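Hi P.,

Sorry for the delay on this. The queue was packed all week, but I finally got your sequence through. Input first:
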Amino acid sequence: MSELIEKIGICVERGKVNKTSPFPPDMKGLDGADEYTKLAVE
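Then the structure:
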């Protein structure tokens, strides 16, 4: 669970909203805050 929260924090800090978001360019195609939040809630 703490790993998911850390990933959510990184995505929020860097502006990675969801997987389809092209920003930031180095995280293109990776899961974003939306996906990690959904996993954390489950």
